[in-house]
């Protein structure tokens, strides 16, 4: 049985106090309202990780970071290592988000290094893949997404690959208010799973958690999560409101 996960990516939002208030609200709502065994992950900005880790301790909510560096330590001013993330209680780390790829020129090879060091230190990568509207219109989106997986993940052993969570994010549906149709989401998730099967076999493919990461909201989450190959969501804007985020979790 694949693990169901809803992860909230706060991106560069919320001051320290605002972040603590949001995390506290989520933890309390989850405690009172969520009956499923779905995994719940909050990914606040770096400055809030340690404090949020204290708030989620002992709850159903896990802690994730939004990024990490590919090296263990060193002269990388402004960067954060996986060891630092582990030391403040993070169990997950988002890697390869489309914004990191676009604005910070993160390549598939660079992300492979980040995947490696995350796994070596016991962090679960939430590895993002996805295409632009232009790539979809040109009909190259399937090969593009497959290449992201191949170049960043397919060097892993079977046992390590099974520790990775994949998040498919149609870039054209992030922050635009546009959501992929249920059919579009299911199609891409099925293709991703089939691509994993071609490398690792059906057993590994069937065990891999694949999240949907494009404008998932309380009013469409239930339909999206009902798709056979959609195992939850990587939530952006809706994760900044405790009520919306918890309602998405309850869609299971």
TrEMBL record:
Entry GO terms, CC: cytosol
Gene Ontology BP annotations: gluconeogenesis; glyceraldehyde-3-phosphate biosynthetic process; glycerol catabolic process; glycolytic process
Protein family (similarity comment): Belongs to the triosephosphate isomerase family.
Matching InterPro entries: Aldolase_TIM, TIM_sf, TrioseP_Isoase_bac/euk, Triosephosphate_isomerase, Triosephosphate_isomerase_AS
GO molecular function terms listed in the Swiss-Prot or TrEMBL record: triose-phosphate isomerase activity
Presence of keyword Protein biosynthesis: no
Location in the cell: Cytoplasm
This protein's UniProt keywords: Cytoplasm, Gluconeogenesis, Glycolysis, Isomerase
EC number: 5.3.1.1
HAMAP family reported in the protein's UniProt record: TIM_B
Residues the record lists as binding substrate: 9-11, 175, 215, 236-237
Organism: Sporocytophaga myxococcoides
Function statement: Involved in the gluconeogenesis. Catalyzes stereospecifically the conversion of dihydroxyacetone phosphate (DHAP) to D-glyceraldehyde-3-phosphate (G3P).
Name the record gives this protein: Triosephosphate isomerase
Active site as annotated: 97, 169
Pathway recorded for this protein: Carbohydrate degradation; glycolysis; D-glyceraldehyde 3-phosphate from glycerone phosphate: step 1/1; Carbohydrate biosynthesis; gluconeogenesis
Enzyme class, broadest EC rank: isomerase
């Amino acid at each position: 049985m694949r693990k169901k996960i809803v992860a909230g990516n706060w991106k560069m939002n919320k001051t320290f106090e605002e972040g603590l208030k949001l995390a506290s609200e989520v933890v309390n709502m989850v405690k009172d309202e969520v009956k499923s065994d779905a995994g719940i992950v909050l990914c606040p900005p770096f400055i809030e990780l340690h404090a949020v880790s204290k708030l989620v301790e002992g709850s159903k909510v896990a802690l994730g970071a939004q990024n990490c560096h590919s090296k263990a330590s060193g002269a990388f001013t402004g960067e954060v290592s996986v060891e630092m993330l582990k030391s403040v209680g993070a169990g997950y780390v988002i890697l390869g988000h489309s914004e990191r790829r676009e604005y910070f020129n993160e390549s598939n090879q660079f992300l492979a290094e980040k995947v490696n060091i995350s796994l070596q230190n016991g962090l679960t990568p939430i590895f993002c893949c996805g295409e632009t509207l232009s790539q979809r219109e040109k009909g190259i989106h399937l090969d593009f997404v497959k290449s992201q997986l191949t170049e960043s993940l397919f060097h892993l052993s079977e046992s390590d690959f099974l520790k990775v969570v994949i998040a498919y994010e149609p870039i054209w549906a992030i922050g635009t208010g546009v959501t992929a149709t249920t059919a579009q989401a299911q199609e891409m998730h099925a293709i991703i799973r089939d691509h994993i099967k071609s490398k690792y076999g059906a057993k590994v493919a069937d065990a891999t958690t694949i999240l949907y990461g494009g404008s998932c909201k309380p009013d469409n989450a239930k339909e999206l999560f009902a798709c056979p190959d959609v195992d939850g969501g990587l939530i952006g804007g809706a994760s900044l409101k405790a009520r919306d985020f918890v309602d998405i979790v309850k869609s299971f």
